[in-house]
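User: My instructor asked us to take a sequence, write out its structure as tokens, and then describe one feature of it. I'm not sure where to start. Here is the sequence I was given:
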Amino acid sequence: ASAGECQPEGARHSVTPTTLRETLAFVSPALEGRKRVLEVGCGRGALAAGLAAKGHEVTAIDVALGDDVRAPGVTFARADLVRYEPNCVFDAIVAVAALHHIVPIDAAAARVARLLAPGGVVVLDDFDVAAPNDATARWNYGVIDLLTAAGQFQEGHHGARGDDPLVRWKREHEPEGERLHDAAAMLAALQGAGFARAQVTRGPYLFRFISSMVH
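Assistant: Let's start with the prediction itself. The structure tokens for your sequence are:
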């Protein structure tokens, strides 16, 4: 991705009932009592629509937003977070599987701080590229290879079968010209932007990605 931009959700993977259900279950409790919500990297707008249906006033931005993306109660904008200048601030900012792509990440975190109203909350639902151990990587690629062989998985840059799983994970997630931010880097950027308190909850994520790539 070029400076300041993030790859849109729709280009990474589709939103299935499983991924949307799991994402809403994680995000929604943190947004209780928050009226104006900004979603960064909204893709096709499925999460934004879900949040609007819960009563939030949602603005959803994506650097590659499609012209046909619409949802009741949502204001969509084709915009890059680092350069985004709305005429208001937000009670909550949500980013799902987006912040790990955005560069420069320090500028992105600083813009999030400027867009947030006093007392607001930032909710990140992202994956930690540094987290998988050998067992996790082996499970991940075992499922992917099985589904691919069955013709049920979208072909992608998932490395060569037979490679060591952790080596394969590193090759996939450190493509030439792009280095994904891990959880430590994302937290450090937010702390550098003035966010002093962070609550981190770890949980299963890879099954959501896999389900979103199944035909």
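For the description part of your assignment, you could build on this observation: The helical segments are 9-12, 17-27, 46-53, 105-115, 134-149, 165-173, 183-192, 206-213. Try explaining in your own words what that tells you about the chain.
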